[in-house]
Amino acid sequence: MGSKHHKPHYYDRNESVRITIDGRNIIEGSLTLPSEPKGVVIFAHGSGSSRHSPRNKYVAQVLNESGIATLLIDLLTSEEENIDNITREHRFDIRLLSRRLIAATDWLSRSIELTKLKVGYFGASTGAAAALVAAVERANLVYAVVSRGGRPDLATGDILVHVEAPTLLIVGENDKEVIDLNEKALKQLTKIEKKRKIVTVPRATHLFEEPGALEEVAKHASGWFQCFFLEEKS
What would the pLDDT profile of 195-215 be if each residue is shown by its tens digit? Predict the structure, then answer.
């Protein structure tokens, strides 16, 4: 975790949200709204993580301080999480995770208060693959994607060649296998050749637990979202 502690601005609004999926399942999330937000970033967690992940909460807080709203969402229901903790089957089900992320995106677009906000995705681990799949499915709504220690290579089929949202892949310098997977995935993002980038955080491993590593992640993510939330879609 980072060494700096960011305090929410007095005008931040924090809400717990419940989103109904497929007419019956419910996923839960935490929505934070600064005043006059520049956009909203949905966090797609992976590999057994949840909206309570201290790493993603830290990054979300930094985004909030730069005027970006955040929605940290559990892509699995509580029952599915209990099963996944034993079998690990759902965390690698990219189709399931991406459908849940799309549902959260659609929920935002139906909100009178949030419908005009530009959307970004922040995906960690397998959540990065889900974010890229969802970005293709909702290309008209998604303005930017950031992956932290992600597995974009797990995006199903030829999804990567269809990604239109500017994409930043952040990996730790000492996370050698994931660096290789990200570099290969980056080359497949052919539609966004000038809006794709990989950043390697010095001395960091997969979870970015080293001093200063998470601050670097948050700084790069914040800059990426702010840049592309200001752009209009071509």
Answer: 999 999 999 999 999 999 999
Q: Which structural domains are found in the chain, ordered by start?
A: 13-229 (3.40.50.1820)
For tokens 């949905």, name the residue: 42
Q: With residue 65 as reference, give the H or E element that holds it.
A: helix 54-65
Give the model confidence (pLDDT) of 144-163 as tens digits: 999 999 999 999 789 999 99
Strand 25-33's sheet: what is its strand order? 13-21, 25-33, 69-73, 40-44, 119-124, 142-148, 167-172, 196-201
- Taking each continuous run of H as one helix and of E as one strand, the counts in the chain are 6, 8
Cβ(68)–Cβ(41) below 8 Å: yes
Longest dimension (CA), the chain: 45
What does pTM read for this prediction? 0.90
Contact between 212 and 2 under an 8 Å Cβ cutoff? The reply is yes
Work out the angle at residue 204's Cα, subtended by the Cα atoms of residues 88 and 128, and round it to the nearest 5 degrees.
40
Q: Other C-beta atoms within 10 Å of 172: how many?
A: 24
